[in-house]
Amino acid sequence: MEAVRFSRFGGPEVLELVDLPDPHPGAGEIRIRVRAAGVNASDWKKRQGLMDQELPQTLGYEAAGIVDEIGDDVSGVAAGDRVFGASPYGAAHAELAVLSYWAPIPDTIGYARSAAIPVAAETAARALDQLGVSAGSSVLINGASGSVGSAAVQLAVERGARVIGTGSPGTHDALRSLGAEPVAYGDDMPERVRAIAPSGVDFALDVAGNGVLTELVELAGAPGHVITVADFPGARQAGVRFSRGDTGRAAYALAQVARMAEAGRFSVKVGRTFPLAEVAAAHRVGEAGIVRGKLVLLVD
Asked: Strand, coil or helix: what is 283?
């Protein structure tokens, strides 16, 4: 099969499309013929050498496609089913990918939009679970307009929470459409939050990683009421939790989001698509931050 790989760390130019052996699913896993795969910041961080140090490395943690091989101890799915899900092996930017958890693709969305969901939905649901966000609580989501942030907004609203979301003024209409009360980034953000929530909030989730954890702690009342998924150094300094997947995945979120999408209660924005062979261009666009919405690779 063809797959994206790099054999040295560096810029997008180190990415290659190479021929690799076909993967096969183990117990509790399935294999799909990939039709679309999401591109995340973790992909270019790996390429830059900021994560795993082994070489060579493949890329891609989420994909959508057609089931073509099923491992042992798997039920409820058959060859030919359309599914989206997550690859534990970081190897979804390929013609074939093994998934460890998955959900049916809703009829209302196609492969590209489905491939944009898994990482954002699981990350958002896991953080909301760790915070304890539930009906009647209030949560401030810092960086609410990105893929993880918008997923967190929609999942928190689904739980019955009051959601306040930070974003640039140009995102405020979109945030309102998702059910959040928008406030602007930047200086005096805490004052703008207190203007609509004088007593602060019950919880805060940092998705943006823009150095405001101390302010979020003040708004939420205690470090234990704040989680970041984007600012590891800041978390240590502010004494807040950094949410990571090795403490347990919120795999259930994929099926939940699929049901929400089918019912018209979950939306995901794809900013731009690229053929698999143009993965380097996708990385350049992603790192430049010039496209709003998820970047997705398409596989013929």
From this structure: helix
The residues that bridge with 162 in the sheet, in sequence order, are 138
- CATH classification number, 120-247, choose in 1.20.1200.10, 3.90.180.10, 3.30.930.10, 3.40.50.2300: 3.90.180.10
Q: Which residue from 291, 256, 251, 297 is spatially nearest to 274, judged by alpha carbons?
A: 297
**CATH homologous superfamily of domain 2-117+268-298?**
Medium-chain alcohol dehydrogenases, catalytic domain (3.90.180.10)
For 120-164, the pLDDT digits (tens) are: 999 999 999 999 999 999 999 999 998 999 999 999 999 999 999
**Side-chain-facing half-sphere of 243: CA atoms under 13 Å:** 27
CA distances, 189 to each of 26, 39, 115, 169 (Å) = 48, 30, 33, 12
Name the CA dihedral angle for 259, 262, 268, 270, rounded to a multiple of 10 degrees.
130
Q: Tell me whether the CATH fold assigned to 2-117+268-298 matches the one assigned to 120-247.
A: yes
**How far is it, in rounded angstroms, from Cα 4 to Cα 65?**
17
pLDDT tens digit string along 199-251? 999 999 999 999 999 999 999 999 999 999 999 899 999 999 999 876 678 99
Distances (CA, A) of 168 to 14, 142, 144, 175, 196: 33, 11, 10, 10, 17
Q: In what order do the strands lie in the sheet with 241-242?
A: 181-184, 162-167, 138-142, 203-206, 226-228, 241-242
Domain coordinates in residue numbering, the chain: 2-117+268-298, 120-247
Retrieve residue 23's tokens: 């993967």
